[in-house]
């Protein structure tokens, strides 16, 4: 295997640097750090002792990786991105325990982003340049702003309307029988014939914080049928092969999500209310909330 390549003007005190890794000029890696294979540690990077990186990680110029940081495989960290590890920093005060931060596999962090302590950035997530991360970022979420808000789902271009879903979509639109007259609008579904399941649970989601997301998981057995009874919300739908972002707005049609499909809700309007019918009673054991094990199970 290829030995790591350490620039003569870098200071690498660790003997745990993986094969094929390149450490460039003026980088400083402390003795306790563990650096994986095929990393690219660029000019001016500082790595503290209690830092572990996976394989094929890129750390661009001017980044400091502080104690407690765990970086998984295939992560990109852009120039001058800033990590923190102490919620209440004081000069010359030593903390017994620092808040760990984790960047999951395949995530990307844009230039000059700031990550607060104790955060997990989900697998495949995309953090925009200059973003301030104050809470965990869901898998594959695209986040921007200060504080960060979810604006998209990685691998999806644009948002699809319910009536424009492609035939191979991992979800299905089901239209209501809608009537309008001077008294208002009436939308209804004959459930036994309209839905491919018998509802056994109903819940409503409203009051979602501006710019943040809900969901981020999949149910092994449960069908779901989602209706925006008020306002609008975007639902990312991911079956491990195809990803779509579907905009729900109004009760004239709903979205059927089959079992095993990953969903993430974002882009709520302030008045959004989402009604969900499910085929199974709530069972936390059947819900998968970690994207990578879910993806492995789908691919098996």
Automatic annotation (TrEMBL):
Keywords: Acyltransferase, Repeat, Transferase. It comes from the Bacteria. Residues 174-296 form the Sugar 3,4-ketoisomerase QdtA cupin domain. PROSITE patterns: HEXAPEP_TRANSFERASES. Signal peptide: none annotated. The keyword Acyltransferase applies. The keyword Ligase does not apply. Pfam families: FdtA, Hexapep. GO terms for molecular function: acyltransferase activity. Belongs to the transferase hexapeptide repeat family. This is WxcM-like domain-containing protein. It comes from Roseomonas indoligenes.
